[in-house]
Amino acid sequence: MGVSHWDDRRICVTGGSGFLGSYVVEELQRRGARDVFVPRKAEYDLVQLEGVQRMLADSRPDVVIHLAAIVGGIGANQKYPGTFFYDNLMMGVQLIEESRKAGVEKMVAVGTICAYPKFTPVPFREDELWNGYPEETNAPYGLAKKMMLVQLQAYRQQYGYNGIYLLPVNLYGPRDNFDLETGHVIPALIRKMVAARDAGEHEVVLWGDGSPTREFLYVADCARGIVDAAERFDGPEPVNLGSGMEISIRDLAALIAQHVGYEGEIVWDTTKPNGQPRRRLDVSRAKEFFGFEASVDFDEGVQRTVEWWEAQTRRE
Fold this sequence. Notes:
Elements: H1 2-7, E1 10-14, H2 19-30, E2 35-37, H3 49-59, E3 63-66, H4 74-79, H5 81-101, E4 106-110, H6 139-159, E5 163-168, E6 170-172, H7 185-199, E7 203-207, E8 213-214, E9 216-218, H8 219-232, E10 239-241, E11 247-248, H9 249-260, E12 265-269, H10 284-290, H11 298-315
Parallel strand pairs: 1-2, 1-3, 3-4, 4-5, 5-10, 6-9, 7-12
Antiparallel strand pairs: 8-11
Helix pairs in contact: 2-8, 3-5, 5-6, 7-9, 7-11, 9-11
């Protein structure tokens, strides 16, 4: 397929100016896509039906890749659970329905690993998605995004609609969100440790006890996986996108300290929540269904991310 697959197709990428979205747009262009529409939130509010309809009328896409989401870390999820549920649910539900009505050929819906039950056996297999309630701190967000899977499977059954559902694990890389309120763990740790190093501080305080494990996927790898699936996968099954690696938050903090050159103490505030105890994906389905495997080594990816952030702070 390669270049010719995207040559004459119009693609709309919601969230295309965001962290993951910007890499997906670059990957599509690298593969020969010439007509990629990226709606801006200021012009198209996808929580509102009118915004969705206008976006589809303006972009007339053959393929919609839905990445737009209201996201944040544990703190933000605990503070705004209603917003996280409503905004994500309404974007997904309306976009899928309106895309079907507008004759969009294919919908690629990108969900979240937060959709998995809190005590999913490790590694997380897609068949376990419904075997329990998600981790409480981000359940409203996780369930809102999981409804897209229900909707796409129902639409496939009733209308023969071609929609696929992907579950990327925690992403990281250059251009990530380094805001301490809303950013995820890797950028937050990098930012904290660079600041502590530069200020000569003797300790950095982190949430929880450092015992939870997480899996991380380099953002450019994830973008490649999404475009691979858009090209080559047309099934009803949800598919994990991950690297299959697992690292504890404690080891992650030590690794980042090493890359940043922070030599002070790392103190754990155990009054703060840990989040989900363990997280690692079974990544065999993506390989089997559309040949996707992660390629960027974690240590290398962290190094690139640290270097990018250091370059940003030097510019400011």
